[in-house]
Design brief:
The chain is of the alpha+beta class. It is 45% helix and 26% strand. The protein contains 16 helices and 18 strands.
Length: 450
């Protein structure tokens, strides 16, 4: 019995300790008499019910019952896996044998792995996965209580210049400090997540009035405009913020995030260092079809978007050299939706980045299959929207598409408009340089239109 486990108890059917092994006494408290006390007195209040249920189950089922609980030892609170087995003693009374194994190390490892799976490694903030869970919980709670919430999307204006000029270590430090500052101004009930690059998303329960959101946004902007003292440099950035509220601007995670993102880009386009709250009337043309936009969000989930491949033919040899990937939307029972109708709508509601990333990866994979069928090298041309081009994750998406498909850089051609280049020449130059370094081709459409 002494060697049965890290802790061994003989218990009455009521959970009173009748006997504890010498090793148990050393682990728990050498100066404390354990016999005559209840096993539940050795664990934190939150774990007592679990032990009581495990002991009851062992007696009623006549089968071993296991439970993981914390126990108060003289050094620290440790995790134990307890197995309780009921038996009848020589006097005919029911007793229990509880054998415990110290699993503190295993539990700590599992906690670290869980944390790594749900939190951003750099800032320690919730990642996109945990944000999705928290958003789902916020929606469920709002439906129960009738109290709404807001989703706030923000990214750092000027961060890319810092990163490019001083390197990633300085940029990473700035992001960590930015996360800490934002966390400090939020309430305990709020959630702040880093969703990639210099982009953050916050969930603000109960904040649905524009005045409430603007107060939080002004604090965010003010704290970001304070100097960042890093490695002898005084660095300055600002933040552009977009917000969407539940249920006014959407009743699903996809809609709320897309609309907050759309509002954030509107803030960037109209001066930066400001907060814009999503507005259906202002963000879309008068002829905007609200039902069509709702159908678009459903179409993403249902896989209604597809790509058509238009052959690119060498006029001299009449040989197919490649394909242009054209996005199409096939609505069940209604047929094809014209691109001129849904592309501008996707730009406004923020879905274009998601659709563009899918199109780029799908087109590269499909052309690779065309190559295998043709037995020779082909290339693919893909249209890139203004919002997709401005997205800080665009290069990562492009690299992923090439890696996933196995295409080489020169087999991909990106079609962009001259207007994209003119809207932010400095950013465009840096991005085009990085694209060229990967040997990816650029085709400029609408040249000369400004």
């Amino acid at each position: 019995m002494e060697a049965a486990g890290d802790v061994v108890f003989r218990l009455s059917s009521q959970g009173e300790i009748l006997y504890a092994s010498k090793r148990t006494i050393e682990v728990m408290d050498p100066d404390r008499a354990l016999a005559g006390t209840r096993l539940t007195s050795l664990v934190p209040p939150a774990d007592r019910l679990a032990i009581e249920l495990a002991l009851k189950q062992a007696i009623e089922s006549q089968q071993p019952s296991r439970v993981n609980v914390r126990m108060n030892t003289h050094n620290a609170i440790l995790w134990f896996e307890l197995q309780a087995t009921a038996y009848v003693n020589a006097s005919g009374a029911v007793e229990l044998l509880a054998v415990g194994r110290d699993i503190s190390g295993q539990h700590a490892t599992e906690e670290r792995l869980r944390h790594m799976a749900t939190h951003d490694v750099l800032t320690g903030l919730p990642n996109r996965s945990l944000l999705s869970d928290r958003l789902g919980m916020a929606v469920a709670q709002a439906r129960r209580t009738g109290k709404g919430f807001s989703v706030v999307a923000l990214d750092l204006d000027g961060f890319k210049k810092v990163n490019d000029a001083l390197g990633h270590p300085v940029g990473d430090t700035l992001l960590r400090i930015a996360g800490e500052r934002l966390q400090d101004i939020l309430r305990d009930v709020d959630t702040l997540a880093r969703v990639g690059g210099d982009e953050f998303v916050a969930i603000l329960p109960g904040a649905v009035e524009e005045s409430e959101i603007q107060i939080v946004a002004r604090r965010m902007i003010a704290t970001m405009q304070l100097p960042f003292e890093i490695q002898g440099h005084a660095l300055y950035v600002s933040t552009s913020i977009g917000a969407a509220t539940y249920p006014q601007h959407g009743e699903s995670e996809v809609k709320l995030l897309a609309h907050a993102d759309s509002a954030m880009y509107r803030a960037k386009e109209t001066g930066k260092a400001r907060c814009v709250i999503y507005n259906d009337q202002k963000f879309t043309a008068p002829e905007h079809d609200v039902s069509l936009e709702a159908a678009m969000f459903d179409a993403v989930r249902n896989g209604e978007f597809l790509l058509h491949y238009q052959p690119i033919v060498d006029a001299r040899t009449r040989q197919i050299m490649g394909f242009e990937a054209l996005m199409r939307w096939m609505r069940p029972e209604l047929g094809m939706v014209p691109p001129i109708q849904f592309i501008p709508m996707a730009e406004n509601n923020g879905l274009i980045s998601l659709l563009g990333a899918w199109a780029l990866k799908a087109a590269c994979v499909q052309v690779r299959r065309f190559e295998e069928a043709a037995g020779r090298e082909l290339y693919v041309s893909v249209n890139v929207s203004p919002r997709q081009f401005r997205n800080d994750q665009f290069l990562d998406v492009m690299d992923d598409a090439l890696t996933l498909s196995g295409l080489r850089g020169h087999q991909l051609s990106l079609e962009i408009t001259e207007g994209i280049l003119m809207s932010d020449p400095e950013h465009a130059e840096a991005l085009l340089t990085a694209i060229s370094a990967r040997d990816v081709r650029i085709a400029i459409d609408d040249f000369g239109t400004g």
